[in-house]
Amino acid sequence: MKFEDFLIKIGSNIRKLRLQKGFNQEDLDSGDYPVPVRTLQEIEAGRANLTMKSVYKIAKHLKVQPKDIIDV
């Protein structure tokens, strides 16, 4: 698998989990672990090489394990 494909799959996982939890992108830009909307858009589109800090913040917001995000 190419790295670009890996990023796209992670972004797809995040989008799927976010929608299952009933969140929009703006919802993750608030609270104790904010992820800026623009950053989330780039991650979900597979255009951003996300950091472990972003994975941690997104997992906290979605109340999932980080492995649920990066398991492709």
What this model shows, in words?
Pfam families: HTH_3. One of its GO terms (molecular function) is DNA binding. InterPro entries: Cro/C1-type_HTH (IPR001387), Lambda_DNA-bd_dom_sf (IPR010982). The chain has 72 residues and is mainly α. It has a single domain, classed as Orthogonal Bundle (434 Repressor (Amino-terminal Domain)). The protein contains 4 helices and no strands. The longest helix has 18 residues, at 3-20. It starts with a helix and ends with a helix. The model has no long low-confidence stretch (mean pLDDT 96).
Oligomer: single chain
Q: Indicate the overall shape.
A: globular
Number of domains: 1
Beta-strand proportion: under 5%
Q: Tell me about the biggest sheet? A: none
CATH fold-type name? 434 Repressor (Amino-terminal Domain)
First-residue to last-residue Cα separation = 10 Å
Separate helix tally: 4
Q: In the CATH hierarchy, what is the architecture at level 2? A: Orthogonal Bundle
H-E order: HHHH
> What is the share of helical residues?
55-70%
Give the integer mean of the pLDDT values. Answer: 96
Radius of gyration: 11 Å
The first-level CATH class name: Mainly Alpha
Assigned CATH superfamily: lambda repressor-like DNA-binding domains
Secondary structure tally: strands: 0
Structural topology:
Elements (H helix, E strand, L loop, with lengths): L2 H18 L16 H8 L7 H11 L3 H5 L2
Protein name: XRE family transcriptional regulator
GO molecular function: DNA binding
